[in-house]
Design a protein that fits this description.
Number of helices: 12
Largest sheet: none
Strand content: under 5%
Amino acid sequence: MKRSQRMNNSPERHSHYRNEPHYNTYYQPVGKPPKKKKSKRIFLRIFIIFIIIFALFIGLMYFLSSRANVDDLKTIENKSNYVSSDNMPDYVKGAFISMEDERYYKHHGFDVKGTTRALFSTIGDRDVQGGSTITQQTVKNYYYDNERSFTRKLKELFVAHKVEQQYSKNEILSFYLNNIYYGSDQYTIEGAANYYFGTTVDKNNSNMPQITVLQSAILASKVNAPSVYDISNMSDNFKNRIKTNLEKMKQQAYISDSQYQEALSQLNNY
């Protein structure tokens, strides 16, 4: 027998091979699961847990929002100087719609674009930032006035949808205009027009002069910061905001070009 054959058949040679690890045709040792598959399973489990928690959270917010009785909004009509939006000039309504919610007549309680921006601002800045529709603001002012949080935003969305299902756009606009703060302890648009200008927003009221286009724009611009914007001593920032409002009113056809020019000339006198 040749020496090479004796070496191959020797017990020491076979023992050496038996102690060597066996590998499959890939790079992983036999019997060990691939690490990538294990990490994918962990990620999938975490994702499923997140979805379940998120669904439970949304369900809780929906339950909490269901406690808001939207019938209560009708009590706003009991205010002594309440004026329905149906009885207001179109430019009065347009001043607020163009400034606060230009797609008001197109959405059903919330504006996807504006709300998404607001939610991301809330998460990033830990504060509530703009983006709310007139319906959402109506809900916030009536039900959640002193609450500022991410959960309030979600509850506000659910209640706003309920409000849109029960009331017409003009009714909701009436609730809004008669339940926001205009400064100087004024919470209705009629009260604000009486107090600041000695005018009325009621087309059927012949005892007082009608509110002008400029005065409407001033009130719509003031509600953003009623305690900061002073009508008797207008800052440049306040005037620029009013000019922006007038421009939007013209672009959205709530006022004509001549009304726009007249309002601008009147603003220069302030």
